[in-house]
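Reopening this one. Same input as before:
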Amino acid sequence: MALGKLPGSDDLEDEGIFAEINITPLTDIFLVLLIIFMVTSSVMADAGARSGLRVNLPKGATREVEARDQDVTIAITSEGKMAVRGKVVSADELARLLGEAASRNPDTQVIVQADEVTHHGRVVAVMELARSAGLRRLAIATRRK
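Same output, byte for byte:
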C-alpha cells in the first residue's frame, strides 16, 4: 500500500490513501503452480498403465478391459523383460506372484501389456505361467485404432 495524493487532485487537503497492487509475486506463484501441475499431470497419465513400464501396445478394435485392484498387470518390454507394478521380475518371481494372486482370489484376471514388437513366445510363456498358477481369466491389452 502506498500513501500519496489521489490522482487528479492538486490540493494539499485532498491527500488520501490509494492502493497499488504489485502482481510480480502473484505471477511467480502462478508460474510455480503451473510447473507443479504439468509435472504431476504427466506422472498421473503414466500411472494409468498400472504396470509401471511404458510399452507400445498393438492396435485393436475390441472393447477395453477394465483393471480391478485385485487384477495382475504384467508388462513385457520390447527386450522381453517382464514387470509387475513397475518392478522387473524374473519368470520364477512372476510364477510366485501369480500363485499368491490365485490363492487370494481364483477369479483374478491377468492382463498382459506386451510391446508391439515383443516375441510371441514370451507372451505365450507368461500366459502359461498364469494358467499353471490356476488363473483362467487372461487378457491382452491393446490400444484403440
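So the earlier flakiness isn't reproducible anymore. For the record, Residues 59-144 form a domain with the Nucleotidyltransferase; domain 5 fold (CATH 3.30.420.270).
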